[in-house]
Amino acid sequence: MKTVKAAFAKSLPVMAGYIILGIGFGILAHNAGYGFLWVLAMSLFIFAGSMQYVGVGMLAGGASVLTVILTTVMVNARHLFYSISMLRHYRNAGRYKPYLVFSLTDETYSLLCDGKVPDDTDPDRFRFLVSLFNQSYWVLGSIIGSLVSGILPFSTAGIEFSMTALFIASFTEQWITAKDHIPAATGLLGTLFCLIAFGPDRFLIPAMLLITLLLTLFRNRISAGKKVDA
Amino acid sequence: MSTAAYSALLVAVMSIVTILLRAAPFLVFKKKAPAYVMYLGQVLPAAIIGMLVVYCLKDTEPLAAPFGAPELIAGLLVVGLHAWKRKILLSVLAGTAAYMLLTQLVF
């Protein structure tokens, strides 16, 4: 019981955000013609906020399987690195490991990445419960959004900007807290360059390659590269 | 294939690819990831957030009316409000509300 309470308390900062962003996703999906069951399936089985926002547009537009694979890889590639930095914490998590790995979202990572767990709790169970609480908020919000979107007394046109606002706010937060601004600036300017050079339909893959290349070249200039610790 | 079946296929694809991305490091790096991979793990997330900001704004047309004004105004509001209050949720809600009002009522 102590572990449950501690995990719930740890998950609280994510609760409001996931419920509200989940509502936004539910409304967006409803507006695109994808109702309750679609929203539930996506939030249960994909559980990647930004990919679900992007994914609704791809479903509605009937995108090709290859496009969906590549876009998912691009949008979710950062999860590779969340997993890498959680290797040592999750590697021996036993029966909790599959769900811990499945549910490692941006928000869950941000709560658990420091590796700290409260005293007198089972670390694996604690992390499992934090992840589970987080997904339950996300699923709940999605369902609420799907159910209320038909009866809201105002137009929800423009709600897709919630995704843009989320990334702009995350970028600002990252910029304020980071010691080194080269990675963030590389991502922003490298992608902008590729958008101008390749156009809005074909710039993501070149941008991903350019960013990786530039950050590899900058490795010796970025302070983070010198204190790698796994 | 019906539209619903095709949509279900795409949802399955998104789910499987996402799971594979999250699981890959555990399958590939049994012990410890190479220093270069760890380095990328440290610097890429910040860069990808920058990439996603541009991705979200990719269909904004700065050369045609309203010249990206709703995106610019709402975006600057998010930056300013976030730098001031540092509350992600507040920044997102205010920015989204501003954008909805601007696009529905002003532009």
Write the layout of secondary structure elements.
The complex is a heterodimer of chains A (230) and B (107).
Chain A: H1 2-31, H2 36-45, H3 49-61, H4 65-76, H5 78-90, H6 97-102, H7 106-112, H8 123-148, H9 161-177, H10 182-198, H11 204-217
Helix pairs in contact in A: 1-3, 1-8, 2-8, 3-4, 7-8, 10-11
Chain B: H1 3-28, H2 35-56, H3 69-85, H4 88-106
How is this structure best described in words?
The complex is a heterodimer of chains A (230) and B (107). In chain A, helix 2 runs antiparallel to helix 8 and helix 3 runs antiparallel to helix 4. Chain A folds into two domains: 156 residues, no CATH class; 53 residues, no CATH class. Chain A contains eleven helices and no strands. Chain A has 230 residues and is mainly alpha-helical. The two termini of chain A are 32 Å apart. Chain B is mostly helical. Chain B has four helices and no strands. The longest helix of chain B is centred in the first third of the chain and has 26 residues. Chain B is extended. Chains A and B meet through helix 1, helix 2, helix 3, helix 4 and helix 5 of A and helix 1, helix 2, helix 3 and helix 4 of B.
How large is the share of residues in beta strands of chain B? under 5%
Total helical segments of chain B = 4
Biggest contact:
A-B, 93 and 69 residues
Rg of chain A, Cα atoms, Å: 19 Å
